[in-house]
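Q: I'm writing a short methods note and want an example of a predicted protein-small molecule complex. Could you take the sequence and the SMILES for guanosine-5'-diphosphate and return the bound structure as tokens? Please keep the output block clean; save any remarks for afterwards.
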Amino acid sequence: MNSWYPGHMLQARDALRSVARYLTAVVEVVDARAPQLTRHAPLARWVGNTPVVLVLNKADLADPATTEAWLQWYRQQPSLLAAVALSAQTPGARQQLKAILVARLTPPFRLCVVGMPNVGKSTLLNRMVGGRRAAVGAKPGITRGPQWIRPEPGWEWLDLPGVVLPRKSRDWRLKALGISALGGDEALSVAQALLEQWPELLGDVGGEDPEVALTTWGRGRGFLGPGGTVDLQRTAVSFLTAFQRGALGRFSLERPPV
Ligand SMILES: Nc1nc2c(ncn2[C@@H]2O[C@H](COP(=O)(O)OP(=O)(O)O)[C@@H](O)[C@H]2O)c(=O)[nH]1
Ligand SMILES: [Mg+2]
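A: Understood, no commentary inside the block.
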């Protein structure tokens, strides 16, 4: 994280407001499993006329048909220059995003990455700059201000702590995705909410009842508490971790409006 900003929403806003006019585009990263819920509505106001390119990241964890429907929906939004779904963890992501930017913008490309916590901003930036974290602006005497990373001629990425915080931070879906923090004993209620909507997450272990499903799953993994009963809170935490990693399959928590 850059020393220029300790990095919270207020700072991301101020930083973006002051640098937006130097940027060719802002890359907004969202979670493909709930892309609209993980967008940051005020961003458009902050960046003014600078175009926004939307990256639906973690597409490897989302339901492919739902992601395709989202892409079609976003491509009809006049406020977006482009939308692309990818997985920043795969090497091909770099070329995927580059192709979109090259097709829609004119060089030189001056870009920055913005998004909510844990959506994959750092992974994407690292992917785009090919590990070249050596900052272009890191010249003697320059100790303040955001750093530009230049992975190749004509391409510059601003190393900005572009973290924005969700406004609906108590939405259980943001907690299920690991974007909002889970309070002390919230794991169970979030896990239950997930299973109420998507009982298929745990296959046929519990039929329609979330608590039965979790209990069966937890017993199978040996998450037992005093007296041999299943420790449901611990089971729920483990279930959420498995969900976030994609170990339970590919699921989308939000669909585009019809
Ligand atoms: N499955 C999957 N995981 C990802 C992807 N991109 C990032 N991650 C993981 O998501 C977590 C958060 O990523 P990070 O880049 O630190 O997010 P940031 O907080 O937005 O900078 C890390 O564990 C990454 O390995 C992706 O495309 N697919
Ligand atoms: Mg990061």
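A: Remarks, as requested: Confidence is low (pLDDT under 50) at residues 1-7, 134-143. The chain has two domains: 9-159, 172-245.
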